[in-house]
Amino acid sequence: MKEIKYEHDAMSLLRSSNSALLSTISVSKKDYPFGSYVSYISGRDRSIYLYLSDIAEHTKNLKNNPKSCITITREKTSGDKQESERLSLIGNLHQVDDEKIDFCKERYYTFFKNSEKYAEFHSFNFYQFAINDIRWIGGFGKIGWLNKKNWTTQNIKWSSKEMNIIKHMNSDHQNTIISSLKATHNIKESDPRIIFLTIDGYYVQGKSNIYFIPLNQVCHTSSEYREELIKLAKENKKHEK
Q: By CB atoms within 10 Å of each CB, which of 66, 149, 166, 181 scores lowest?
């Protein structure tokens, strides 16, 4: 049960954050680790995408050696800072294939509206982080290596129907979106809209922010997604008022 709890908490941190520390192997400093701040988005599965400039030190490093580590944190606002959540993802960074560029642009420019203009100044490219190992620290004693098969590329059978699912939910089940947003984030909005789906939840656009709503189970098919959305609606129905 601990492993399941850790998995869910780690996924939640991945989805609800959008910045991290990227560690690469330095070229100019003789193979020392080099850490830098980056922003990121996650894909339908738990793939991670970065938008990096060719002139950045970390990009020069990864082009020489793709081995990298991304560390995501959620710092406690009070109490013992050592109890803060940390997720370290070890893997390799490579420039994305041409067929993924439009997908990356749509998602990245939605989360980071100013990023589209970066390419006007320097050469920016999208990179995908292929995850090999996952280390979770959720606080004192809440530590473990997670099952990497859940963090590698997934066979998602609903991806071609993503827009149909989103349109259906936004048109016919907005009360469910409202109640789920209230239940998860204690935020009441009159017109929130689903914008993206993932295997373990969906992103909602509010008035000024984007929020992640987790599902209880990972969904690889349309029928699985439908079942989880129905379960979530029933669980959160009390928050509709």
A: 149
pLDDT in tens, 42-72: 999 999 999 999 999 999 999 999 999 999 9
User: In 173-221, which ranges are continuous DSSP H helix?
Assistant: 174-185
Residue keyed to tokens 């959720």? 138
Q: What is the DSSP string of 30-78?
A: TT-EEEEEEE-EE-SSS-EEEEEETTSHHHHHHHH--EEEEEEEE--SS
Write out the two tokens for 163. 């827009």
Q: How far apart are CA 11 and CA 92, in angstroms?
A: 19
- Tally of CB atoms within 10 A around 205: 17
User: How far is the C-alpha of 211 from the C-alpha of 203, rounded, in Å?
Assistant: 6
Residue ranges and CATH numbers for the domains of the chain are 2-150 (2.30.110.10), 159-239 (3.20.180.10)
Go through the chain and tell me how many residues it has.
Answer: 241
Contact (Cβ atoms closer than 8 angstroms) between residue 153 and residue 129? no
Predicted confidence (pLDDT) per residue in 61-105, tens digit: 999 999 999 999 987 666 677 778 999 999 999 999 999 999 999
